[in-house]
Amino acid sequence: MACVVIGAIITGMLSVVSGTPGEVHHIGFTVVSRVTWGLRGGLFPVALRTFTSIWWFGIQSYWGGMAVALILGGLSPSFKHMYNPIPESSHITIQNLIGVIIWYILYIPLVLVPPERLQRPFVISSIAFGATLIGLLAWAVPTAGGGGPLFHTQNTAPSTSYSMMLGITSILSAWGAGTIGQSDWVRYSQRRYYPMLSQLVAAPLMITLCALVGVVVTSSSYQILGTLYWSPIELLGAIQEHYNSSPGVRAAVIFAGIGCTCAQLSINVLLNSVSTGMDMAGLWPKYINIRRGAYLLAAFGLASNPWQILASATTFLSVISFLGVFTAPMTGLLLADYLVVRRHRVKIPDLYNGTPSSIYWFWHGIHWRAVVAFLVSVWVFWPGFIMTMKDPKADNGWVKLFNISFLVGLGLGFVIYLAICVVSPPPHYKEGDPYLDDDLYCKNVSAVAPTDGVEDGKHDENVTVVPVA
């Protein structure tokens, strides 16, 4: 649990500092990337985050499909035991495949709804999932007569410090893509520091509480069922089997399955679809708006075969570490450039000036310092990744370095970029304002966030950008 607490706190801190450009200058991640990478080079981190979101969307969608299958199994036990014609090597059953299809049918209409109108439904969703966790906890601990055997297990890890770093990295890798894109959300804040309460307190607290409940329920249920279930969805299915699908248990499983389904819908619509839709709209604004980007994400997420990724814990952790190899150095670059090199200075007009006269044009629109720092920070993890893919049981220095890629990569990206900038400072890095002058740039900004093309591909008419004289 110490790893979870530390990882959650670091996640909250990264959310605050990564979201500072959006909070101060009211610009999203797509535009923030241009400051560090250049007007053309800024497309690379946006494309990279889109790639990362595809994998996460696929995984979350598959979990959502499993939750739907759980509901159907509670409604009809015969569905749970129906013949499965799909080969076992595919790592997906006909029940879960049907669940995924139904989950997608539920998801697609939600993309049509502007995000600001989903606040109440998603609050209800959070309450439903919270009730599911409390219900599992209320069943597991009294039935097992305590917290279960995992709390009395001796530590057999050869290195406690490395195990701690590995646990912290797992938390950071899981939330890394979400922290680097905080500017997409906090840019709508009406006052500075308003988002900090949720970033520094609420998010780490929820991460820690969910993990704590998960560990306690897993340990207690192991004593009851004799099998370790780390997924609440799989655990609920096992509970139904343990009690021979009694009516009361089936009802509880159905309600719990609804809570899990709503949670996965909320996560994918807000955390993945909207932000990735913004990214895709930034990559191809002529053809893609946020809604179309969300639909493309849904298609790519399904094509990523998430059931293969979740087939084993080793594969899942390897994929998470692989994604952290890229997102961590990218985060380190952004923080070093914005916080230390430029000291919050951003020249807003030049971020929208796609000509060599922009101070962010650098070399043909690409900032070579960011490219070099990123490549140097990333290559050290590739040997370990390749060895892990060839032999999941491989255990050497390269593999261990790869397993803690987020922690190391974050520091490498930060330090290497600063070192390059000390030797060769970026041109015009002292130009710009440390904050956005709303009276100069924006007028008639409504309290409601602009749609950004969610509904019709056009910007909200309530926002008027005033050009600099």
From TrEMBL:
<keyword id="KW-0472">Membrane</keyword>
<feature type="transmembrane region" description="Helical">
    <location>
        <begin position="92"/>
        <end position="113"/>
    </location>
</feature>
<dbReference type="GO" id="GO:0015205">
    <property type="term" value="F:nucleobase transmembrane transporter activity"/>
</dbReference>
<keyword id="KW-0812">Transmembrane</keyword>
<comment type="similarity">
    <text>Belongs to the purine-cytosine permease (2.A.39) family.</text>
</comment>
<feature type="signal peptide">
    <location>
        <begin position="1"/>
        <end position="19"/>
    </location>
</feature>
<feature type="transmembrane region" description="Helical">
    <location>
        <begin position="292"/>
        <end position="310"/>
    </location>
</feature>
<feature type="transmembrane region" description="Helical">
    <location>
        <begin position="200"/>
        <end position="225"/>
    </location>
</feature>
<dbReference type="InterPro" id="IPR001248">
    <property type="entry name" value="Pur-cyt_permease"/>
</dbReference>
<feature type="transmembrane region" description="Helical">
    <location>
        <begin position="251"/>
        <end position="271"/>
    </location>
</feature>
<feature type="transmembrane region" description="Helical">
    <location>
        <begin position="316"/>
        <end position="340"/>
    </location>
</feature>
<feature type="transmembrane region" description="Helical">
    <location>
        <begin position="161"/>
        <end position="180"/>
    </location>
</feature>
<keyword id="KW-1133">Transmembrane helix</keyword>
<protein>
    <submittedName>
        <fullName>Uncharacterized protein</fullName>
    </submittedName>
</protein>
<dbReference type="Pfam" id="PF02133">
    <property type="entry name" value="Transp_cyt_pur"/>
</dbReference>
<dbReference type="GO" id="GO:0005886">
    <property type="term" value="C:plasma membrane"/>
</dbReference>
<dbReference type="InterPro" id="IPR045225">
    <property type="entry name" value="Uracil/uridine/allantoin_perm"/>
</dbReference>
<feature type="transmembrane region" description="Helical">
    <location>
        <begin position="122"/>
        <end position="141"/>
    </location>
</feature>
<feature type="transmembrane region" description="Helical">
    <location>
        <begin position="402"/>
        <end position="423"/>
    </location>
</feature>
<feature type="transmembrane region" description="Helical">
    <location>
        <begin position="54"/>
        <end position="72"/>
    </location>
</feature>
<keyword id="KW-0732">Signal</keyword>
<feature type="transmembrane region" description="Helical">
    <location>
        <begin position="361"/>
        <end position="382"/>
    </location>
</feature>
